[in-house]
Design a protein that fits this description.
By secondary structure, the protein is of the alpha+beta class. Helix content is 33%, strand content 16%. The chain starts with a helix and ends with a strand.
Length: 49
């Protein structure tokens, strides 16, 4: 049911990540997450970016 609602655009997931980074930036993102720098509490790492 949730996947159907996501696909239909009825639910937003934008609030689930505070930061989105490329795979190259992952080591720094983990450091930011650990230190909660810039309000980083949930990071998404995108391998193709």
């Amino acid at each position: 049911m949730l996947l159907d609602r996501l696909a239909a655009g009825e639910l937003s997931t934008a609030h689930l990540a505070t930061h989105t980074v490329s795979l190259d930036e992952a080591p720094r993102a983990y450091e930011r997450l650990k230190e909660k720098e810039d309000g980083c509490v949930r990071a998404v790492i995108r391998p193709g970016d």
